[in-house]
Amino acid sequence: MSHSRVPIPARVLVCLFLAFLFPPTGCGGGSNSTQVNQPPPVGQTVVQLKIGDAAADQLLSFAVTLDSLTAVPGSGQQVNLVSAPIAMELTHMAGTRELLASVNVPQGSYNAIQYGVSNFLVRAWDPTTSAFQDYTDPGPFSGTIPLNPAVTLSSAPVIVNLDLDLQNSIAISSGAISITPHFTVTNNPVASADSQIAETGRAEDLVGMVTAVSGTSFTLALPGSSITVATDSQTQGEPVSMVVANAIVGIDAVTNSDGDLLAKRIDFVETGGVALVEGVVTDLQAIGPTGGDTATIRVRDRWGTSLSQLPNVGDQLVLSGLLRATYSFDADKLDSSYLPVLSFDNLSFGRGQEILAVINPGTGNVLASKVKLVETPAAGIVYGYNPSQVRGFTLLVPQDSALQNMVQLMPQTYLTTWDQLENKTDLEGFPQATPMQDGMQVRVRGLAFWYAPQGYTPGGPTVVATRIDYLSSPAK
């Protein structure tokens, strides 16, 4: 029996072919196929995550590992804000915010942030023993920070500031320490470039490893991610041509409207397999007129290649070679009238100074080739302030503070402080009707100089303030 073949119309062949390529698409001519509607893609917002702290006076160092940080939306999946655990030291961040990560976060509403922390290493002054004590707690601790009101992300970049309130997170009693982490979160839009401070987009003394270079821009590795840094004809400091892959770079920058950074100044570029450490000077051997060669620091942060041997955050590190090292500080942060009388070298090197040091990679005892003075915080009460005359005052620090008992200020608790005439001191948070005055509790952040034209003298450093934060008014 023969079979006849029924021809398939050309239009049907076309429909079958299109249906194979694009299954959701119907074909004309009265087709009843159903359209599958895919939800539109969710937009992304650039979020800069910064961290700081409200310092506790007794603490010399507070090192901790941030294991996880996630944003919790009103609906949908949680979003990771850091890509890997981050070891960090918090006491030196008082009065500023350090950039941890720059991440793309789905737009929408977020009502909480969840965190996990571990490996606490704390060095604090214990008044009961009149000595510094080390405390450790492996943890881990976890918790949830409610966002009230909820944070709604649109298309504009956002600065999220995470603060660990050390004063309310730690209790020290009879040689024991208890830790209950207490975080707060605030968020700010990116301010205009000429008005940015740390909380609204400015990055001061940002240090990182360069992972890639493209034209006049480069990628800087942050503790929890990476960020693109652009340069332009107004970028000051070291030439952009010096910035290469695997270099350690320090910059001052502002945040652009796209959430990336624009370098206003390239402070330094270090290559050649060296490492960089930041720390506070806690002890020294004969620094002064006799020209000491070593100093001990408590490590705040460190940078190097993946092959470098580096100290841990919170470690004690001995720097040697200080007689032959070169010294520097950011003179553009100071009034020009102060520069002739201020110096930083091995003859004006002392306890309580915060420094960056270029070292040969290693731990325990390392050779330093360069030392740079950077800003350090101190909190206390304003005393002897007269803005109509010399812009100097005494900061009365607590008697049991780590600063007092490390530096041994003389007279006790008196820290000499200079406000600046050329608008180089940011005054933040002061009541509009009440400028700075005696009796106010403030936090000063600035460069600490052991002022001694004729050599090292005891008594304490002079802090030239780059920022002063209002904390409270005088008691009535």
Radius of gyration: 28 Å
Structural class: mainly beta
Q: Strand count, sense and closure of the main sheet?
A: 6 strands, antiparallel
Kindly state the number of beta strands.
Answer: 30
Strand content: over 45%
Tell me the overall shape.
globular
Low-confidence stretches: 1-34
Question: What is the mean predicted local confidence, pLDDT?
Answer: 85
How many helices? The count is 3
Describe this structure in words.
- It is a single chain.
- The chain has helices at residues 10-21, 166-169, 402-407; strands at residues 44-54, 59-73, 79-80, 86-89, 98-106, 108-126, 131-137, 141-153, 158-165, 170-173, 176-179, 183-189, 203-214, 217-221, 226-230, 236-237, 248-255, 261-270, 275-285, 294-303, 316-320, 326-329, 354-359, 365-374, 376-383, 392-396, 414-418, 426-428, 441-449, 462-472.
- It is mostly beta strands.
- It has four domains: 44-189; 199-270, Nucleic acid-binding proteins (OB fold (Dihydrolipoamide Acetyltransferase, E2P), Beta Barrel); 275-374, OB fold (Dihydrolipoamide Acetyltransferase, E2P); 376-472, OB fold (Dihydrolipoamide Acetyltransferase, E2P).
- The longest helix is centred in the first third of the chain and has 12 residues, at 10-21.
